[in-house]
Predict the structure.
Amino acid sequence: MTDNHTQPRFATTTDAGIVTVRCAGDLDLATTSRLRDALLSPFGDGGAAAVVADLTETTFCDSTVFSVLVESYREALARGIPYAIAAARTTVARPLAILGLDRVLPLHPGLAEARAAVTGSRATRVS
């Protein structure tokens, strides 16, 4: 039997006070703790002007991921920090829509749109 899972990868970058947390690969119960740490840590140090959760390279996610997204969004609201989620893939966006979380969470189809949402600027696409 072959294992078709894509290893999860997390990376955090900061640009002009905007913290982008890139979450790639398969995210599930086994990665929830690492995901929670990655998405909540920008709020702990007090240096984030805005936070973007970049799920554009997430290939799979289960319901535990959705609860972490809600938790991190609530933390952003409590601290008054702009927050956005970039979820371009159907594997992420569709389950969020089915659960109705697309009406609650600040979802955007791409990273440029999510960054524009937290800065209040217009997204520009480079072809």
